[in-house]
# Entry
Amino acid sequence: MRLLAVCSISALSVATAAYPQGTAEQRRACTRDAVTLCFDAIPDTRRVSECLHDNRERLSRSCAASFRRGIL
# Structure
């Protein structure tokens, strides 16, 4: 299970590097939410962003703050 989480975070990191949105800190704020809520969308950052937006009521406080600032 831990290996799966590490691989997922790595895939998200690679995807966000290829399609930069926001700062590294802002991406980190949403990584856990992306893995938890949008695992099937990884590594497509456009789909991950849409998924996070669709699940905005369930986001962590730090990720939700990134959305409120219009970063993601």
